[in-house]
Amino acid sequence: MVLIGVGAFLTSLDNTIVSATVPSIAVDLSLGLAALQWVGVAYMLPFAVLLPLAGLVLDRIGPRRSLTGGLLLLGAASALGGMADSDVLLLVARALQGCAAAVLVPGLLSLLRTALPESRRAAGAALWTACLAGALTLGPALGGLFSEYAGWRSVLWLNVPVVLLMLALVPAGTVRLSTETEPAVVAGSPVQRRLLLTALAVQTLWGLGITGVVFYTPLVHQEWLGLGPLGAGIPLVLVAVGVVVAVPLVPFVVDRLGPHRVVAVGLVAVGLGLVAVAAVNGSPTLLPRVPGLLLVGLGSALTTPLTTVPLEAVDQRRAGAVSAALTVSRELSSAIGIALMSAVLVAVGAAATAGGAPPGASIATGYGAVLLVAGALQFVGAALAWAWLRPSFPARPATVPSSVGGSP
Predict the structure, then answer these.
(1) Residue 397, class by beta-carbon neighbours within 10 Å (0-12 exposed, 13-18 middle, 19+ buried)?
(2) Which residue in 95, 185, 210, 377 has its CB near the most CB atoms, within 10 A?
(3) CB burial class (10 A; 0-12, 13-18, 19+) of residue 1?
(4) Which residues contact 343 (CB under 8 A, 6 or more apart)?
């Protein structure tokens, strides 16, 4: 559980911690607004592209060797980024970090299925979701803190001691459970494919909206609200607070309402939270944004079944591939989401500038459009989840044949 939690937080943190350092990187390395998106995309694209291969390799060699290799690569890439003195070197380091994360995340996520008993998987998935969301929203605040007081390169060096900690945890954290009491496989069934495809589609819609919003929120808070790097990222902590408050309740409500209803309600809440922030976006103060940000966090916590339902539909032999597929949808949607929201922000902001708005107000206007687009994506995802995320499994024997056992 410690390995899962720390690993989820670290790999998600590398996605978001740089967002608050973007203004400092832009000044130091002379990057324009259009080029800044590549600081995030350079990490996300190799992460997403390599995940299918990483999942297959994981199922062949097992999580212990996979995690060890990924951690060593992540530590080396982070050190390279910490020494970067040009935009090219920084982007290479970010790409290598993405490659390492592609190896790490399926291995970590597969531990929910291979190293935890069935009674602990809901708690493990809740921890996974909380750590992902916590890193997604705390990242900008931590990035601002380190950027303001230690320079933007420090956010890359931060990975190195965490990597060393995880390397120490890998031997004990990857002990594989016996499969003698595992439920039988529902391999290749129309139910196992519908659930996976629905989870992938819904998670993609969530990522398209949320990641772009999180990436550009600190920039707007600095340019429009006049906050420093640290202050600009702190409001996103409210999203993490909402997640932490709601995640412990998820297994309880899923048992009673079903995963499709829980995810749908969660995405509606996320959409309403984004719309609420958009409604007060014209205000140059922070307080009116608080309720909307909290609602985004509460709703995001309810998307936990997007991870647990597909993993429960397969046996341990396929946990790596399914984990990779789930992560592909999240990371690829994150990369596309940043690019999409960048296009919306730039286009709407340019139109506002052409209409005579000052720079800060123009960025705020573009950000308002970003919030509305992201909210609309959440409502579409809610409709899909309500209709298709229904885990109606056929009856399964209490045990699996001995041929299913063995190392992945």
Answers:
(1) exposed
(2) 210
(3) middle
(4) none
Q: Is the dihedral of CA 55, 61, 67, 71 positive or negative?
A: negative
Confirm if 137 and 294 have CB atoms less than 8 A apart. Answer: no
How far apart (Å, rounded) are the C-alpha atoms in residues 230 and 126? 28
pLDDT in tens, 166-195: 999 999 888 876 554 444 444 456 777 888
The letter for the amino acid at 384 is L
Residues 6+ apart with CB under 8 A from 328: 48, 51, 52, 200
Give Cα separations from 294 to 199, 235, 243 (angstroms): 24, 10, 8
Which ranges of 280-358 would DSSP assign to H, the alpha helix?
290-301, 305-312, 319-354
**330-374, pLDDT tens digit by residue?**
777 877 888 899 999 999 999 999 999 988 889 899 999 999 999
Quote the CA–CA distance of 183 and 378 in Å, as a whole number: 33
Q: What is the DSSP letter of 152?
A: T
